[in-house]
Amino acid sequence: MESEASSYRVGLAFNLKKGIKGIVEDIEAEYDSIDTVMAIKNALESIGCRVELMEADHSFLDKLRQVHVDIVFNIAEGLGGRGREAHIPAILSFLGIPFTGSDETTLCIALDKALTKRLLTSFRILTPKHQLISHEGERIRRDLRFPLIVKPNAEGSSKGISSMAVVDNMEQLKSLLERNFRLYGQPMLIEEFIPGREFTVGVIGNGHETRVFSPMEIVYKEDRDGKNIYSFEVKKDYKKYVEYVCPPDLSPELQKKLMDIAGKIYRVLQCRDFARMDFRMSKDNRFYFIEINPLPGLAPGYSDYPMIAEFCGVEYNTVIKMILNSALKRYGMAPVM
User: Where in the cell is it found (predicted)?
Assistant: First the structure.
């Protein structure tokens, strides 16, 4: 069993940053650097796997035909469209090739922020009051209260969320909507901004082996009148703007409540192997779900997910091994020892 497991050929599917210049700075925010790709490759090789690098571009099918792989370790974000994160999982599902992470259906739902909120609300998950704006000039709900935060509906890695994303009045809102429609060309989600503390929670595993890591709090070094947000600019230079605290200064009851909510969301959306989700806690100690990433970044020393794991005593190579083993077990394959 052990010798079989240690001889797995693993395809590593990814989208690589190319240094493309666009009309927005964050055009490649979701893609991975070669350093991240090599870190995962090295982690997989350290546990005896043979790794095939498989960039998720238009030649991906040719790569699959040329090289037999036992399983694909998927971190590919896709090339475009609302369903882009489902591109590689859908191909792999169609061909019957095992892969790590959530399937194409979960990834499609989770990337659509408004759709995710609509679904989770039916399971009594608290989320800020919001509205999906499909085009400029669409009527704004009268019951939405300022301040509001504006973000592209189907983006990750804080793409399209700048330091100006929180607006205080209708004039600012209309101006930002006009700008974002022009730059990002997709529907915009507007939601009531929740002043308070901000947390992110990582989950790993499946079924009875699912583990919810202790929450990590994002603590801002400078208070912007209670309107701090985890924007693209902040993430890009996080050491300048924030500190991470894990476990956070929460009562045992509140920490358990937050972890229970995260576990419930993971199950409701049928996430697999690993995911990370974001929350804000209001001043009356209520946790509001903001969004989920079932394909979280794995850049060592940078991405939130491996930071959370490390705070909880799980070093980087072990995280990669745990994700792989979670997937292998789902497919009835022997885990790597």
Answer: Cytoplasm
- Is the confidence at residue 161, as pLDDT, over 90? no
Whole-number pLDDT of residue 24: 57
Q: Which residues of 229-241 are buried (b: 16+ CB within 10 A; e: fewer)?
A: bbbbbbbeebeeb
Cβ contacts of 198 within 8 Å, gap of 6 or more: 217, 218, 228, 230, 278, 279, 280, 281
Alpha-carbon distance of 14 to 33, in angstroms, equals 9
Tokens of 198: 């901000």
Pairwise CA distance, residues 104 & 84, whole Å: 9
User: Could you give the angle at which helices 316-330 and 304-311 cross, rounded to 10 degrees?
Assistant: 100
Q: pTM for this structure?
A: 0.92
The CATH classification of domain 9-100, taken from the options 3.40.50.800, 3.40.630.10, 3.30.310.10, 3.40.50.20: 3.40.50.20
Structure tokens at 59: 């030649």
CATH numeric code, 130-192: 3.30.1490.20
Q: Is 270 in contact with 263 (CB distance < 8 Å)?
A: no
Question: CA quadruple 98, 103, 104, 105: dihedral positive or negative?
Answer: positive
pLDDT tens-place string over residues 166-192? 999 999 999 999 999 998 889 999 999
User: Which spans in 159-286 are helix H?
Assistant: 170-184, 232-236, 238-241, 252-268
337 contacts: CB under 8 Å, gap ≥ 6: 2, 5, 6
Fold match, 9-100 / 130-192: no
Asked if residues 327 and 99 have their Cβ atoms less than 8 Å apart, the reply is yes
Residue 6 pLDDT > 80: no
Classify domain 110-126+194-320 by CATH architecture. 2-Layer Sandwich (3.30)
Q: What value does the mean pLDDT take over residues 152-165?
A: 79
Instruction: State pLDDT tens for residues 259-269.
Output: 999 999 999 99
pLDDT in tens, 56-75: 999 999 999 999 999 999 99
Would you list the domain boundaries of the chain?
9-100, 110-126+194-320, 130-192
Residue 158, phi then psi, degrees to nearest 5: 60, 25
